């Protein structure tokens, strides 16, 4: 799994209603909710502020336990007045048994429920994949291959306009399809020890990437939270974190 993926939303109450409506159909309920942040295990939505502009142009896919659950996810959104972004059905271009349904959240990000026939330990309702539209896939590829040994990543697809990075039970694609760029996403990858967090940060800075937070404990999140942050070529905030618990 991703450790977590975070987005900033223009209206937290409106986005909370959307994600509660559709993710509850997949069996996922918030693990934390307050006036500033709502979390569903590995998916976080937070209010915008000066440091966190609204996220735009992101595609996120959530795991569904069945095709019927994909249908129910999409129908729950439509019934609540949210916008269609692709009715449920097979998408064999992504895989022979790939079945997805798509909606737009209040900020226009694409949210999908996806079911494929596979067995792994990731719970239903968790993030399966992201699609991030980038300025230069080759530049993004260099960044993510630089941090790959410390973030548990490898290359899946390697094409000029589509680079897919694969983790143990998730993926994210860096694409250039002529549409507006994705803006202001936070992606965090899990580490098993503090040394990996430090190695991630050092490797990124040695390659010339921008620091966004030196390795250290962030007890504001919880005691033992040890993370480091850098910016990718499109300014997305990328973290590796060890929870020490």
UniProtKB/TrEMBL annotation:
VOC domain ranges (all copies): 1-116, 126-243
InterPro entries, per database record: Glyas_Bleomycin-R_OHBP_Dase, Glyas_Fos-R_dOase_dom, VOC_core
Protein name: VOC domain-containing protein
Species, as recorded: Capillimicrobium parvum
